[in-house]
Amino acid sequence: MMLLAVLSGFMLAVAVPALYRLAGSYIGWVLALLPASLTAYFASLIPAIRGGEKLLLETPWMPGLGITLDFMVDGLSLVFALLISGIGAFILIYAGSYLKGHKDLARFYVIMLAFMASMLGLVLSDNLITFFVFWELTSITSYMLIGFNHEDTEARKFALQGLFVTAGGGLVLMAGLILLIFITGDSSFSGLLASELSIHEHPYYTAAAVCILIGAFTKSAQAPFHFWLPNAMAAPTPVSAYLHSATMVKAGVYLLARLNPSMDGDMLWSGSLLVFGAVTMLTGAYLAYSSTGIKKVLAYSTVMALGTLTMLVGVGTELAITAFICFLVAHSLYKGALFMLAGALDHETGTKDITRMGGLRHSMPKTAVITGLTALSLAGLPPLFGFVAKELLLESLLHAPIWQTGLLVAAVLSAMLVVAVAGLVFIKPFFGPVVKTPKLPHEAPFAMLIGPGVLTMLALIFGFMPSLPANLVLDAAISAVSGYPVETALALWHGINLPLMLSGLSLLAGSFLVAAWHRLQPTLYAMNTAASRFGPEAGYFRFMEGISQVAGWQTRILQNGVLGTYLLVLVLVTFSLTGFTLLTRHGLQLDFDFSDSFFYEWGIALLIVAATVFACVTRSRLGSVASLGVLGFGVALTFIHFSAPDLGITQLLVETLTVILLVLVLFRLPPFAKLSSSWERYRDLSVAVFAGVVMTLIILAVLDIQYFDSISSYYVENSYGLAFGKNIVNVILVDFRQLDTLGEIFVLGLAAIGVYSMIKLRAEDQYKP
Amino acid sequence: MKSNTVILHTAALAIMPLQLMFSVFLLLRGHDEPGGGFIGGLVAASAFVLYAFAFGAEATRKLLRVHPKDLLAAGLLFGLASTIPALLSGQAMLTAHWWELPLPGDSYLKLSTVLVFDIGVYLAVLGTLMTFVIGLMEVEG
């Protein structure tokens, strides 16, 4: 059942194109049935995990490698699963309306469902490797979602940026996870969490922690990797809403929370989380305040939220974890709603710039009401759930084990800025004088309002009754992150205390910032533009440029298109390495024994040598080809002489056909000319002689040493008994070692395709006008 | 490229069918005597190369009827097909299967996945070489 729940998104994705033809413009509603029923399914698991228990559902996948499709459901993963599937349902409905009539709507849904399924797999996986597979799947599918408008250069550029940052971090994360598996000897989260082993003392611990942190920070857009997230706004709005609220960027935070019980209590871990989280929080809040595009504003406020979440994991107290879970849920609810509302505004007015909107409350009253309520949650004002979360945040920072003052100042500063941002998002578009917009504004359709409406309702209900979600799943989630059972008593009203006063202070200062926004904006904009030349994004572009420069440089040196250079490099490297190994491992042994050789064997050897020398010195191409043929026939004679008729026949045929092929090619070549200097020819000669000598030494060594018992006797004994064949060579080819042969004929096929395309699609043809 | 000598024309017409028959003979007897799919394919290819030298690439194409690339593809398909019986019967991939068909008289026909595989090798070798040769012969200028 669990397996089905995770994989059903992939299955439905396959059926989307067909469904789209049937359902037409109702496709969003039809597809939303899946996440809706998944939400119901996950909700039905609530009773089983309420007391902090874990559900383990095991499915073998690659048992030989210790990779399983095991799923673990505890409070944390269930909260995520509910958010992913619940918000996912609304996003699918919303997208049907937002992208109505888009020519690639079916493709959009295919990727969206695959993304949703990957995300579910990520939060439910128990196996670390499976987790990583899903992690990378979300990177890839989100790449396709961000670059959905693939005809737009910007969209492509920023999709690639998101992919490079998150998948690059993903590689580092893989190293970290593998180190973690080495440390604990167990490849599952449940095993890791249950183990009593103290992993902090292990010599690999530092490396593992750093790798995992980098992976999580890139995914969750922590400074200095935060730049990809606002750029990912190139995606259609439903994607932004989904990526920001419940998924993608939360994956990194999920990982941090998931590993918290094992990693907690270590300065490297907690300290990094605190520092990076706090810096990200402030950076995000400041950048959100100084941006004008509504999607950019919201994107930077997501960066702020992610920083806050990371910081809270770093604080690590019971109160901080409670704040973490509440903030996570609150943020998912309001951010999903706000993005969908921003998309509605953009859709109905034709602009994303909040300086170019105004007075819309008359034409879009419902949108205005919902935005107002949701903005309250963003600002952390009562009676919404955002308030509960923010009070918890301040309270937990007051009691943080280290750096209370610094963290608290940072949190209050960012709270101020966020209040201002919430004010701007609500006041700028809906109040003030009516501003003429590119499209004549009118109320957004039902499908675009139901999602924000329901999410805001939930935030309101949770705000009035925070014990309701707490009793259901939040307590279980908090216990899962803390590593021991926790029972919380959440309330909207805590009486007048220090956090409340700090909230009041930030509200006041925030209102002032809203009022001053118009005057500050140009200055901030100029400052940000000046600073962006030194920012991490500029670093990213310089890094990418550096990569292509290095690539260009090494291509000019190594891949210069001259066949002679390739051969020279290949031969030199191969024979230097093998020669070195031979000398160091085996040593030189030169004992020739010619006593049992016959005169005709000498004859064959002489023939071969003579043909070789002639092939090298002759000035006629045809002559050298023919002498190469003679050389091959000499080898064939040797095979026949040592009673290997199959090899002999094959050699003979191959030589014949090679000569024919060479003649066909020679036919096209210009007349023989001397193009190389004599220095080059002596260099080539010495390399060739060197290769020949090393090869000879290797063959002598092979005759000399026998590491293993020869396998030939096995073939001889079993060829007829097991494989019913008397020709051992053939039996080896088509039975004992059939897999090799199968691979070889495919290589043959590849070679044929290569030659065919070289002949048929010659480069000069492509440049012909 | 096409030869105009009567000797080559006549010889090619006489030798080529023999070569082809011999290639099939080599293929079929390969399991017990020198031969097999690889050698058979090489012999068959040399038969067609001889024909191509005598009558040109275009005529060889007509004689082959199918594009050499398709021969190669068919060979790879045969190679893969020979792995299926083992998969269907739940054995490790590439486990050989043998069937013996009684024939009139006292003899019987030995059929096996190994033979199917060998035919695949034969076709792949033939297809690859003919792709090379015909391709090279048809290069302009």
TrEMBL record, chain B:
Residues 7-131 form the Na+/H+ antiporter MnhB subunit-related protein domain. The keyword Transmembrane helix applies. One of its GO terms (cellular component) is plasma membrane. It comes from the Bacteria. It is a multi-pass membrane protein. Keywords: Cell membrane, Membrane, Transmembrane, Transmembrane helix. It is found in: Cell membrane. The chain crosses the membrane at residues 7-26, 38-59, 71-94, 114-137. Pfam families: MnhB. InterPro entries: CPA3_antiporter_subunitB, MnhB. Belongs to the CPA3 antiporters (TC 2.A.63) subunit B family. This is Multisubunit sodium/proton antiporter MrpB subunit.
